């Protein structure tokens, strides 16, 4: 049975950050912990967020701030933030940053209110049902346009044993998403491109999934149209607020759609990202996308629903574009954006392949790919992505 569920209050416009105070009042937050990272704070983006709240029961100047979010959030960082949460008697969370800060805040929402290690709550280990309504309420304020974690029920965290695991529950869905494209203006071009490719990957991969969810398919295609058409402009002209708004919409829509399921792109990215945490998730997705599109392209569900043609149309490619050419178009876009187009450029060695494959086979995204991948299939995708 398909479960179709959209719950978050979303504010999507330039200046949306001014609604944070009113959202605190609506949700009932009086002492939230702010979760961010050092880069967002140093760039002055956090100050911009805290500057102009209206109708708020909260004085933002008095709120505790955890700014130790790493590029790939870890269970260690979760513990550090939980200690601050408890020290100040916090009653909720405001995440200000990219997907890492928002996912870290979701980890804190679990760990601050539930006992035991995070692995007790990991989806692939059967722990999703252990996450209860006690989870701390969260307001998400994205400063990148990529992960869409502000409207997603899941988080990806590196646990203490080094695995990169997913945590999924409707109790983790942010109570409010404040999507203000003005907050992405200071994002460097490379990160604009990498996070934007993350959004495009979400739209492409969730559309390819064979699960039945017509609203998710429609949202994914519109997100793809906006993201594909605007990512280069947003990367090269950071002050173009309309391009930034379209990228933020694409990010949000990709995550709204991927409740349908993702696939081998994310299985591989999660696997390799856990082994090499310095690698950017969006960049990994961009590198793996062409091989996975080729792998999925001839699957019966793709032919039955004419999915390659519908994706090509959203990407403004020629009618009748075959899977290989669509895959090549994704690779060419990454090259134009200045992103790596192969794993070798990122320092990945073939010696890691066996570990990557084992982790990908056990990733929560593996089973929702339209065509189930075998170990040899994953090896071929890795070879093609080098």
UniProtKB/TrEMBL annotation:
InterPro entries: ADH_Fe/GldA (IPR001670), ADH_Fe_C (IPR056798), ADH_Fe_CS (IPR018211), Alcohol_dehydrogenase_Fe (IPR039697). Residues 367-386 are annotated as: Disordered. Residues 377-386 have a biased composition (Basic and acidic residues). Belongs to the iron-containing alcohol dehydrogenase family. Residues 9-181 form the Alcohol dehydrogenase iron-type/glycerol dehydrogenase GldA domain. This is 4-hydroxybutyrate dehydrogenase. Its cofactor is Fe cation. Keywords: NAD, Oxidoreductase. Gene3D superfamilies: 3.40.50.1970, Dehydroquinate synthase-like - alpha domain (1.20.1090.10). It comes from Roseateles aquatilis. GO terms for molecular function: alcohol dehydrogenase (NAD+) activity; metal ion binding. PANTHER family: ALCOHOL DEHYDROGENASE (PTHR11496), ALCOHOL DEHYDROGENASE 4 (PTHR11496:SF102). Residues 192-383 form the Fe-containing alcohol dehydrogenase-like C-terminal domain.
């Amino acid at each position: 049975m398909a479960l179709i569920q959209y719950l978050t209050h979303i504010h999507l416009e330039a200046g949306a950050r001014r609604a944070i105070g009113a959202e605190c009042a609506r949700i009932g937050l009086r002492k939230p912990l702010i979760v961010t990272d050092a880069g967002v704070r140093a760039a002055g983006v956090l100050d911009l967020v805290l500057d102009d709240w209206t109708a708020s029961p909260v004085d933002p100047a008095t709120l505790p701030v955890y700014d130790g979010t790493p590029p790939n959030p870890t269970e260690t960082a979760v513990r550090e933030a939980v200690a601050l949460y408890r020290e100040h008697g916090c009653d909720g969370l405001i995440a200000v940053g990219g997907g890492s800060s928002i996912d870290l805040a979701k980890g804190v929402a679990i760990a601050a209110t539930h006992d035991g290690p995070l692995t007790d709550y990991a989806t692939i280990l059967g722990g999703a049902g252990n996450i209860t309504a006690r989870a701390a309420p969260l307001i998400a304020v994205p400063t990148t346009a990529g992960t869409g974690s502000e409207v997603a029920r899941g988080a990806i965290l590196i646990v203490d044993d080094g695995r990169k695991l997913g945590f999924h529950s409707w109790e983790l869905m942010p109570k409010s998403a404040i999507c203000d494209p003005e907050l992405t203006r200071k994002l460097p071009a490379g990160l604009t491109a990498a996070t934007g490719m993350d959004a495009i990957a979400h739209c492409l991969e969730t559309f390819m999934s064979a699960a039945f969810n017509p609203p998710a398919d429609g949202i994914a295609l519109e997100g793809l149209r906006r993201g594909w058409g605007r990512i280069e402009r947003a990367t090269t002209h950071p002050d173009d607020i309309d391009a930034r708004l379209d990228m933020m919409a694409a990010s949000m829509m990709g995550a709204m759609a991927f409740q349908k399921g993702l696939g081998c792109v994310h299985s591989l990215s999660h696997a390799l990202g856990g082994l090499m945490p310095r690698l950017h998730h969006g960049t990994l997705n961009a590198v793996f996308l062409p091989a996975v599109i080729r792998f999925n392209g001839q699957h019966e569900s793709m032919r039955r629903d004419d999915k390659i043609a519908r994706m090509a149309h959203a990407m403004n490619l020629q009618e009748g574009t075959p899977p290989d050419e669509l895959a090549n178009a994704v690779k060419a876009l990454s090259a134009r954006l200045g992103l790596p187009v192969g794993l070798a450029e990122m320092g990945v060695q073939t010696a890691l392949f066996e570990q990557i494959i084992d982790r990908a086979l056990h990733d929560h995204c593996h089973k929702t790919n339209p065509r189930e991948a075998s170990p040899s299939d994953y090896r071929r995708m890795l070879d093609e992505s080098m």
